[in-house]
Design a protein that fits this description.
It is built from 15 helices and 12 strands. The protein is α/β, with parallel strands linked by helices. The strands form 2 sheets. It has a 7-stranded mixed sheet with strand order 1-7-6-5-4-2-3, with helices on both faces. A 5-stranded mixed sheet has the order 8-9-12-11-10. Helix 4 links the parallel strand 2 and strand 3.
């Protein structure tokens, strides 16, 4: 059957943006074939859209998946997974280090009768001990947000196989350029496509990649609750994917250079970047990541929240903003931004301090990034850390 968007075989270089909500049927037999899944076709936007479908297939290829489903945000993608595979009486294991908004969703799941256990990424070796006969899913992120902790995906798969549970990996930080969780044993891989996949701070989208069977199950949930991505955002996302490998490679190259610079700064402590040899998870990251270690890192500035605030306020090139993985370098204090979804006492239980900053390194000249960080550190809390070191001596 010829492509309805290219009836003469001369395919456009850019996937057309199909804004149509509904579609006319040529005859009842075509309608039957579409609804029975015998042919690709479209009936209503909440069900499917050709622009959306094009970007789904592209992300599936990037993650070595059979198929992929795209929705309106990263959290919509996470929620799709929870609602599709969990039921009352099931046990879900989450890691403290996943994106904070998952905590809010976990409260909803608990109201629906799902038992939730939280585990720290530093304790991932204890996963075997936390697995129960009713464990239905383990959901993790590696490297984690915001402290860049690393979890062994293959080891996690061995643990869930004991009870036949589902292993879901959020690959937003690592991106498909550096890590392919499905090849390491994950059943599903989740993305906030708002971040590096889109890459330009101009769209929101989420994605879940897996098998054809998973696509069918997730499609049912997406169709039921109505979180299909709009065609224009899908077009922006597909555009971003065309430059994604170039951007991801440049960010990783910049990030390791920035991290090595920060290692030498007396006002910086608890620097965490998986590409550094002294990172606790470096060996595991080296085994399961490729082409670098991503563009995200975290570190503490000075000894107080005010030191971190002064540092960020003194930056000139780097933007003080949430989100990550885009062309511009972005920085924030997670305790005051991305972790606001968590109660204050919970934000610090797994290592996020008030002076912890998260830096998403962009594609700018790395020398300019380092120059900006250097001048801002000079105006921040360098003396605080040096005085503490002198007192210890």
């Amino acid at each position: 059957m010829s492509d309805p968007l290219t009836p003469y075989g001369n395919r456009p270089m850019v996937t057309p943006i199909v804004h149509a909500v509904n579609y006319e049927y040529r005859d009842f037999e075509v309608l039957r074939k579409i609804t029975d899944g015998e042919i690709d076709g479209y009936t209503y936007h909440r069900d499917d859209n050709p622009t959306v479908r094009a970007v789904e297939k592209r992300i599936a290829q990037m993650e070595f998946a059979e198929d992929c489903i795209v929705c309106t945000s990263g959290m919509a993608a996470c929620t799709l997974v929870y609602l599709t595979y969990l039921k009352t009486g099931d046990h879900l294991i989450l890691f403290n280090d996943i994106y904070g908004a998952n905590y809010k969703v976990s409260l909803i799941l608990e109201r629906l009768g799902v038992e939730v256990t939280w585990l720290d990424a530093d304790q991932s070796s204890r996963l075997d001990d936390c697995i129960k006969p009713n464990t239905a899913m383990v959901f993790l992120e590696t490297p984690s947000n915001p402290l860049c902790k690393v979890i062994d995906i293959k080891a996690a798969r061995r643990a869930v196989d004991k009870v036949g549970a589902l292993l879901v990996v959020d690959n937003t930080f690592a991106t498909p350029f550096h890590q392919n969780p499905l090849k390491l044993g994950a059943h599903l891989v989740v993305h906030s496509a708002t971040k590096a996949l889109g890459g330009h701070n101009d769209l929101m989208a989420g994605a879940v990649a897996g098998s054809k069977q998973d696509y069918t199950r997730l499609w049912f949930t997406r169709q039921a609750i109505g979180c299909t991505l709009d065609a224009y955002s899908a077009s922006l996302l597909e555009r971003g994917l065309k430059t994604f490998p170039l951007r991801a490679g440049r960010m990783s190259e910049n990030a390791i250079k920035v991290a090595r610079f920060l290692q030498k700064q007396p006002s910086v402590s608890r620097l965490s970047y998986p590409g550094l040899e002294d990172h606790p998870g470096h060996k595991t990251a080296k085994q399961q990541m490729h082409g670098g270690f991503g563009g995200l890192l975290s570190f503490d500035v000075g000894g107080s929240e005010n030191d971190a605030k002064r540092f960020i306020s003194s930056l000139k090139l780097i933007y003080h903003a949430v989100s990550l993985g885009c062309t511009e370098s972005l920085i924030c204090i997670p305790f005051l931004t991305t972790m606001l979804y968590l109660p204050p006492e919970r934000r610090m239980t797994f290592g996020v301090n008030r002076n912890t900053v998260r830096l998403s390194v962009g594609i700018e000249d790395y020398g300019l990034i380092i120059e900006d960080v250097m001048q801002a550190l000079g105006k921040a809390g360098g003396s605080t850390v040096r005085k503490k070191a002198e007192n210890k001596e």
